[in-house]
Amino acid sequence: MRKRDIVQEIISKRKRLGRRRDPASLVEDRAFGLFLAFDKLRIMPAKERALKQEMIRYISVGVVSCLEGYFRLIIRRLIDHGSPYRENAVKLEDLRLDLTTITRMEDAKVTVGEIISHLVRISSFDDINRHLSTLLATEYFAALGSMPISNMGTFEKVHPRGWQTLMTVFQDRHVACHELNPRVPWTFKRAIEQWRVLLHTVEANEALLHKLKVKELR
């Protein structure tokens, strides 16, 4: 099997990302596309029930794409910010760096944060929580829960079942992508709640980064 070229993977991802913008803005754009999909699904006639069900199940794929892409950029942002997050990064699990990747980093102008954020495993929200807890040296989801959401109260108050929703959206994505005939209750209400939690998770995380005075990506 051909060996992965980690540096080239990162360079290719940079090109696909397009103009450099902050992670929250990138999520906002993708989430707006999901909102347009909701609007079309909402008015779909009853005779299109099978099509509506099929489309709803893939909302979780879009939501997880936003969460994974956003938090990979946040992990990069924290590590490239410097101390204490760079020192804490050595405690992250499942990182495998070979000598070739290390020697090519400088020539390709790839940062330590880019390498690590590209390599960490993210297949559930538990993975995200574990990585951020390690970098911040605190229980991440608890810190997130205390952050304000659009004058509605804290994240924890607005989404008392936020953890369950974030875990479920990853599970739904896995089922939608990998199982042939899943018996899962794909509902419009469930999809809308996953979308709302996505937006508020990003908003709360941005508030947390501001509180910590973590500088933006360059």
Structural class: mainly alpha
Radius of gyration: 19 Å
The end-to-end distance, rounded to whole angstroms, is 35 Å
Number of distinct beta strands:
0
The oligomerization state is single chain
Strand content: under 5%
Contiguous low-pLDDT stretches (5 residues minimum) are none
**Mean pLDDT rating:** 89
N to C succession of SSEs:
HHHHHHHHHHHH
- CA-based shape: globular
Largest sheet: none
Helix fraction bin? 55-70%
Helical element count? Answer: 12
Secondary structure topology:
Elements: H1 6-17, H2 23-42, H3 49-57, H4 59-81, H5 85-88, H6 99-108, H7 112-119, H8 125-136, H9 140-145, H10 155-158, H11 162-178, H12 188-212
Question: Can you tag this structure with a few keywords?
Answer:
218 residues, mainly alpha, globular
Question: How would you characterize this protein structure?
Answer:
With 218 residues, the protein is mainly α. It has helices at residues 6-17, 23-42, 49-57, 59-81, 85-88, 99-108, 112-119, 125-136, 140-145, 155-158, 162-178, 188-212. It starts with 5 loop residues before the first helix and ends in a 6-residue tail after the last helix. Helix 4 packs antiparallel against helix 7 and helix 4 packs parallel to helix 8. The chain is globular and about 60 Å long. It contains 12 helices and no strands.
